[in-house]
Amino acid sequence: MTSLPEDRRVALRAGRAAAVLAGAAWLLIVIGALVRAHGAGLSCPDWPLCHGRLVPDFDARIALEWGHRLFAGTLGFGVAGVALALLRRRALRARFARSLAAIFALLGTQIVLGGLTVLLGLAPWTVTAHLVTGNLFALALAWLARDLLDAARETPRPRASLSPSSARLVWLTGALVALQVVLGGLVSSHYAGLACATFPLCNGDSLAPTLSGPVGLHVLHRTNAYALAAAYLALAWRTPGLAREGVALVFTQIIVGAANVLLRLPVEVTALHSALAAGIVLTTGLLARDALHARVAPKGAGAAERGLVGAAR
Q1: I need a labelling partner for 183 at 20 to 30 A (CA). Which of 36, 54, 152, 245 fits?
Q2: DSSP run (H or E) holding 296
Q3: 308: pLDDT strictly greater than 70
Q4: Spelled out in words, what is the top-level CATH class assigned to the domain 1-156?
């Protein structure tokens, strides 16, 4: 922890700014979902210009896609501002240089993937990679915000306890969330959102009529969602706090996913589905951060881990 009062003040301001930027990155994911739901992904068919111009003539779809690009660029400048404030302080630079490098690497990758998504005509791999990287970018900003706010404290937070089995459950839950984001991107990019047009059965036949093609992608997405719900329930029982918020998000997401199918992918529900997914990524990522900072308790000390997250928040 940095000890100079001025360093703490800078860390506090930068931490608050990073939290706002993480919220903006979450909103950018939602706007991206609206771009896709409205079929506006290629309304600007070139990149980085739009119809060969920096500011094109607008219709509704062009305005949505161009606004998405403008918002992303503004977010990038905000990240640069936070980085500049931190790099000017020696102690903060030493502590956060690697985190900033990772964030800028994600930002650069996301910019390239955004361009490739347009130039390659919404190729499924670019759409999926763009979604995954966007979620990682938002999580990296939220993680940085938490680290900065901790650095601004005069005294360190007490470390919570976590049993080895609960630590493994955190990582399993994180892996299921990562897989779900990838599967969600593949379902979207392969236009498989209605490959199973009924719920809970797939096309009225069974839970999993096949695991191949668009139907298979949709089935895997649903199946992994159920596994994720079970993992989060177990995690919330062992480590209440942020995990309980994750449970609420996951079960709400399953309901919204069912509505998305039954209502035939309305734009508003599709956007809400993406918003909840990004929220689950942020929640799970911050749970993983808390687990990394926790003390690993010996076996049989499960009751002590009840403080996880609650003490770290």
Answers
A1: 245
A2: strand 295-296
A3: no
A4: mainly alpha
